[in-house]
Amino acid sequence: MLNVGVIGCGGMGRDHIRRITERTQGAQVAAVSDVFEESARKAAEIAGGAKVYTNGKDLINDPEVDAVLIVSPGFAHKEDLLEAVKIGKRVFCEKPLCTTADDCKVVMEAEEASGKHLIQLGFMRRYHKGYIQIKDAIATGEYGEPLMMHCTHRNPEVGTGYNTPMAVHDTVIHEIDLCHWLVNDDYESVQVIMPKTTKYSHPELKDPQIMLMRTKSGICIDVECFVNCRFGYDINCEVVCENGALKMGTPMAPSIRKNAQCATEITTDCFVLFKDAYDAEIQNWVDCAEKGVIEGPTAWDGYLAAVTADALVRAQETGNIEKVVTVEKPQFYR
Ligand code: ISE
Description:
Blueprint: E1 2-7, H1 11-22, E2 27-33, H2 37-46, E3 51-53, H3 56-60, E4 67-70, H4 77-86, E5 90-94, H5 101-114, E6 119-122, H6 129-139, E7 146-154, H7 166-183, E8 187-193, E9 209-215, E10 220-226, E11 234-241, E12 245-247, E13 255-258, E14 261-264, H8 270-273, H9 275-291, H10 299-318, E15 322-323
Helix pairs in contact: 4-5, 5-10, 6-7, 7-10
The protein binds (2R,3S,4s,5R,6S)-2,3,4,5,6-pentahydroxycyclohexanone (ISE).
Residues 155, 170-171, 174, 227, 270 line the site of (2R,3S,4s,5R,6S)-2,3,4,5,6-pentahydroxycyclohexanone.
């Protein structure tokens, strides 16, 4: 049984605690921590009475904690990641790895120096069946080389605190990770095109946006990001290859005929659409602990996502094509 310590007991933290307690095989939540003690106590109850900490460092160093799950706000990740790596503890960290590319690099270098693969990053879409089917189909070689990708990332609405850069950091960050993983390539440059803004937006948010990314081998990716689309949480992906186009299947939902209409429901909630993916990523992380490996997204993926996101935010401001400049991918992550 893997004893997991969870740092961060907000909504997402409680969701992971519930998942591990109710659905994950071979793991249990042994300790939780939150700067707000009351939040930690409430979360500990979900796990049937886990130990309570108000400091991530103490939880990480608890000898009864085998592995750590970091679900605190992004700005707090670096310190806990470095502490876990220092003592050789496995850690699952929700996105982002850190809030700046420089901090991501520091964490990546610390992991490399430890000589052990310890960090998995929470880009759960890699565990979604529809994307796995596309990746497997590309790998057969039957469709030739991927040339282009068309993606949409639509949210029904966002709060008034959501601004233009958040379309990159909060939303398209998923496609940044997913697209390079699907085609096994890294990014070379990005650009952002701003269409007419919807009346449902506000002065701090340009919505929709079209984000363009070019990979090193020349694959061109367009992502329509539209976070006030009003009609649903609508995620689509098509990879156009030399001998065929692979479009992700729509979620399994009945098509209902009524009132002279034929309709299929679109969910409005990302946690509903990706529930199975979240379950699968945590199960995979737990299963891999026994083998001492990381199969999911790594600290390199977190670093690449941060550098690419920075370039996209620059492109939002300049309207130019912006280069994605990373350090060379270390042998350790190849
Ligand atoms: C949120 O953080 C997510 O992860 C959702 O997948 C995304 O659609 C939403 O825009 C983000 O705010």
